[in-house]
Amino acid sequence: MSEYPEILSFFSVLAQNNNRDWFQSHKSEYEKIKNYLIYLAAGLIEGITHFDKEIGDLRPSDCLYRIHRDIRFKADKSPYKTFTGVYVVKGGKKSPYAGYYLHIEPGNCFVGGGLYAPEKQILKSARMEIFYNYPVFKAILKESDFAKYFGGLSEMGKLSRPPRGFPSNFEGIEFLKHKHFVVASPYDETLAGTARLIDYSIDIFRAMKPFIDFFNGPVDDVVKGGAY
After folding, report:
1. Alpha-carbon distance 99 to 117, whole Å?
2. What is the CATH code of the structural domain delimited by 7-224?
3. Quick one: average pLDDT of 126-143?
4. By mean pLDDT, which of 69-78, 154-163, 192-201 is the weakest?
5. How many CA atoms lie within 13 A of 104 on its CB side?
């Protein structure tokens, strides 16, 4: 299925009826969403492969997530996610590498990606990369195609103080406070559930390629060095 424009409506209603009985009675609608997401993921993989061979030979299942929430250690016991996304990344969705992400959620649709929640050694390596190659990093953020879509890094999880081991007078010290190196560009919700979302996202992902490459260098250092 190449289109399912009701996708946002489904998640909006699910948010008000987040229980197994409702979900089971609307399972056929969710099957249509799954088919659309498979189509979407396949299109994104194909498009990204044209400018980033490093993502390798991925299948849609490597880039999609289950709708079921992990509620084992959560106060909120709602069983289902009220959003969905496609994550195209070298090694698949569970890999440590930076990748390309498309998010579909009522009131919060965006295209972006980067290095999300890196483990300790990779986080340290990424910060060192920024520290020693700051002019390169700054140039990537200011490049016209990139800046057209992104105003800067997401602030989520940012430290209030600089991490230890770096001089406080470093020009890019604010970037070193980040625990995630990700960016996001909101898109018009009318694109959600359409085939047009593929080409729209690919244009943004192409502009992100230098950003992704910058962080996958330090990830490689850790992975290939055996520390991951």
Report:
1. 12
2. 3.30.930
3. 98
4. 69-78
5. 29
